[in-house]
């Protein structure tokens, strides 16, 4: 009895020593980081037990909790993977521009079951090839062409808001809108789908997000187990299947259309055509579908959430809303909003940038170091993950005076030189930044301008500290936010 107990203890010690031996270089590095060994690391589970300690079931609230008690930078372990968490713009600059730091951190593996073959997760040469290919879908000639589509959709939104007035869940409401606006503009797919089906794809994308939250913080739960045995997982599997069928149907239509028309190229190819082209080489249909789903997903809740936060913040800051209104009336007046107007809507753009500063919809980035990376004051060993908390970079008082104040004037042209490089990274930065930055900004700008021109927005929230945030891939408030629209009397 006693002997077997000794044996067990001995084995555990040996296992731990082996773990320490194998991870010696990471432990040594972690020791040099200011907040070093505060959380003991355990083999297999790393430091994921602190999500239990802190009661935070998601990345953003965990980061906020650690920031409050320890500050940046700090160490975490995701299973056996060492992660260095930073909010220093100088380090951000090195990481995002380093050619040996373009691959995603193991933290993203949880999403492999949906996005494995898509541009967001592919690695090295495959990524370089895809990036070069899909950049063509974001040329400025295509963007110019899409502004009309965005404007058209924003008019439908204005009509809809006249009767809705107070969306029950402003986030979901805006997400749906973004799915529809972008699906038509960027993939061309929704022309072949009924509005019901487009809505369904939108809902599927949004529901999957909700359901996989629990997957991210628990490294020991494999997606396969989750998808096959857990009720929530089974639901995800079913929804993924449905979404796939719909996308397959849209792709079928498109293929036929392309066969009939030999020359459909006017302003360049839309994203779906690019996905199909890519399929000719080395993507089977399933891989095309993953690619389409990624674009649909990258273009829906990111832009949708940004719109929702913008509306709420404008509702909370009436003077700022009036300035947007005045600008829109001066630049556009009552006519249609066109691509020529966009560069002149400077204050409107500043409002969107400031919203994204306070609420970066994707709050963290994670990269894998494929060689030792010199961060200036320290050399982070090969095999570690670098995690950038966009959220904390953008609220750092060192770079943003009075960081919790909603002050769009920070982004006015005359003030932009004061902004520290790499302290505003809501669209990421460097080699693997957001491909849809210009599209996203344009769509949001057109929509905000058109909505503010037609409505007064109101919200009862007093300060942004009231919002409890939660994140999976993207960040949302935990509770519904108050946001109301009442028709403006035209001057
Ligand atoms: C407000 C809107 C948006 C925000 C805040 C945003 C933000 C981001 C961020 C932070 C990343 C980096 C993710 C990472 O490294 O883990 C990213 C990547 C990406 N985004 Fe966006 N995005 C937005 C809209 C869009 C739109 C409209 C599209 C396309 C139609 C798009 C397509 C992509 C793609 C393809 C990537 C992956 C690029 C690569 O890995 O090479 N995004 N986005
Ligand atoms: C938007 O486009 C559709 C189809 O081209 C058209 O029927 C509709 O009238 C347009 N809506 C607005 C508000 O321009
Ligand atoms: C930005 O510039 C304006 C003047 O154009 C000034 O009033 C404002 O205080 C500046 N804001 C910041 C944050 O620098």
From TrEMBL:
Heme binds at residue 434. Its cofactor is heme. Coiled coil: none annotated. The chain crosses the membrane at residues 6-24. It is a peripheral membrane protein. Belongs to the cytochrome P450 family. This is Cytochrome P450. It comes from Ceutorhynchus assimilis.
């Amino acid at each position: 009895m006693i002997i077997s107990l000794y044996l067990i203890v001995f084995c555990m010690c040996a296992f731990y020593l082996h773990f320490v031996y194998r991870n010696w270089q990471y432990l040594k590095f972690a020791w040099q980081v200011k907040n070093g060994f505060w959380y003991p690391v355990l083999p297999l589970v790393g430091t994921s037990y602190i999500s239990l300690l802190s009661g935070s079931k998601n990345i953003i609230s965990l980061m906020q909790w650690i920031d409050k008690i320890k500050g940046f930078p700090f160490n975490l372990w995701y299973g056996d993977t060492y992660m260095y968490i930073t909010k220093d713009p100088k380090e951000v600059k090195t990481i995002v521009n380093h050619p040996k730091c373009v691959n995603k951190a193991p933290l993203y593996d949880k999403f492999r079951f949906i996005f494995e073959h898509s541009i967001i997760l592919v690695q090295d040469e495959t990524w370089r090839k895809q990036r070069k290919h899909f950049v063509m879908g974001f040329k400025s000639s295509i963007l110019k062409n899409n502004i009309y589509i965005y404007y058209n959709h924003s008019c439908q939104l204005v009509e809809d808001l006249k009767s809705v007035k107070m969306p029950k869940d402003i986030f979901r409401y805006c997400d749906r809108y973004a799915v529809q606006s972008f699906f038509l503009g960027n993939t061309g797919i929704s022309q072949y789908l009924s509005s019901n089906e487009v809505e369904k794809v939108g809902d599927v994308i949004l529901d999957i997000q909700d359901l996989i939250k629990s997957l991210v913080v628990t490294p020991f739960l494999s997606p396969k187990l989750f998808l096959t045995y857990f009720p929530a997982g089974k639901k995800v599997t079913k929804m993924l299947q449905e979404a796939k069928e719909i996308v397959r149907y849209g792709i079928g239509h498109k293929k036929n259309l392309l066969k009939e028309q030999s020359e459909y190229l006017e302003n360049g190819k839309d994203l779906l055509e690019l996905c199909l082209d890519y399929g000719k080489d080395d993507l089977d249909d399933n891989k095309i579908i993953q690619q389409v789903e990624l674009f649909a997903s990258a273009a829906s809740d990111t832009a949708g959430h940004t719109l929702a936060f913008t509306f709420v913040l404008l509702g909370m800051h009436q003077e700022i809303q009036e300035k947007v209104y005045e600008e829109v009336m001066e630049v556009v007046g009552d006519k249609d909003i066109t691509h020529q107007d966009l560069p002149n809507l400077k204050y409107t753009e500043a409002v969107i940038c400031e919203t994204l500063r306070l609420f970066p919809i994707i709050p963290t980035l994670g990269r894998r170091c494929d060689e030792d990376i010199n961060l200036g004051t320290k050399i982070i060993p090969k095999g570690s993950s670098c995690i950038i908390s966009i959220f904390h970079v953008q609220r750092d008082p060192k770079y943003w005076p009075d960081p919790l104040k909603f002050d769009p004037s920070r982004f006015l042209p005359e003030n932009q030189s004061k902004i520290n490089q790499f302290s505003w990274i809501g669209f990421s930065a460097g080699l693997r930044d957001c491909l849809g930055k210009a599209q996203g900004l344009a769509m949001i700008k057109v929509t905000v301008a058109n909505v503010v021109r037609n409505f007064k927005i109101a919200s009862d929230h007093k300060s942004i500290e009231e919002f409890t945030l939660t994140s999976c891939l993207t960040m949302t408030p935990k509770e519904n936010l108050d946001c109301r629209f009442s028709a403006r009397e035209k001057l």
